[in-house]
Amino acid sequence: MPPLLYLASASPRRSELLVMLEVPFELVLPRVEEQRRPNEAAADYVQRLAQDKATAGAAMAPRPLPVLAGDTIVVLDDDVLEKPVDKADGLSMLRRLSGRNHQVMTAMALAWQGRLEVVLVTTEVSFRTLSETDIERYWASGEPTDKAGGYGIQGLAGRFVVRINGSYSAVVGLPLVETEALLRRGGVLSG
Ligand SMILES: Cc1cn([C@H]2C[C@H](O)[C@@H](COP(=O)(O)OP(=O)(O)OP(=O)(O)O)O2)c(=O)[nH]c1=O
């Protein structure tokens, strides 16, 4: 099947989730700098990054097809927790998340025919209290390194999650319901 869409993402989770929407797609891999501006609100930041990725993807796409991109951040007390830069950073994120609620924000952007639309999905996630042993063992699993907030709900950190209020697929990196609607608006999906 010829592609109808490009996904501008190196995230294997985003590719796996997009498969669920049954639209043939190919990857483009733009490089976009991820740096929050002073006083930039978390919701603005995550939407800007998704838009930057979609725009950069459209600039390098080999064919004039719509380009989808996303960004995920974890927000705790107005602080943005991105991917841990090292072990100390990863352990400190997990200690902060322990026994508390935080928000996971995922923005998805679609660039097509010179247009750009972005949607933001915010999900509340509750963690149980984590012991130092939980935290050290989880870090040693290798799972936290490439994930916003230093955890993956779909993996070993699933056992830390007491409840979520919102979209599970958004926490993993691509909100299925909202992305399907976005792809309909962009004419990628019909019906
Ligand atoms: C909170 C959480 C994040 N994540 C992942 C989703 C994203 O892949 C990653 C956040 O990093 P992002 O910067 O959103 O994305 P990425 O760098 O992995 O990929 P790309 O920019 O090329 O699209 O964290 C999980 O897999 N599970 C979780 O529970």
Automatic annotation (TrEMBL):
It is found in: Cytoplasm. Its EC number is 3.6.1.9. Keywords: Cytoplasm, Hydrolase, Nucleotide metabolism. GO terms for molecular function: dTTP diphosphatase activity; UTP diphosphatase activity. InterPro entries: ITPase-like_fam (IPR029001), Maf-like (IPR003697). The record marks R13, T72, Q154 as: Important for substrate specificity. Its cofactor is a divalent metal cation. GO terms for cellular component: cytoplasm. GO terms for biological process: nucleotide metabolic process. Transmembrane segments: none annotated. The keyword Oxidoreductase does not apply. It holds the Pfam family Maf. It is an enzyme of class 3 (hydrolase). The active site is at D71. It catalyses: UTP + H2O = UMP + diphosphate + H(+); dTTP + H2O = dTMP + diphosphate + H(+). The keyword Transcription regulation does not apply. Nucleoside triphosphate pyrophosphatase that hydrolyzes dTTP and UTP. May have a dual role in cell division arrest and in preventing the incorporation of modified nucleotides into cellular nucleic acids. Belongs to the Maf family. YhdE subfamily. This is dTTP/UTP pyrophosphatase. It comes from Oceanisphaera arctica.
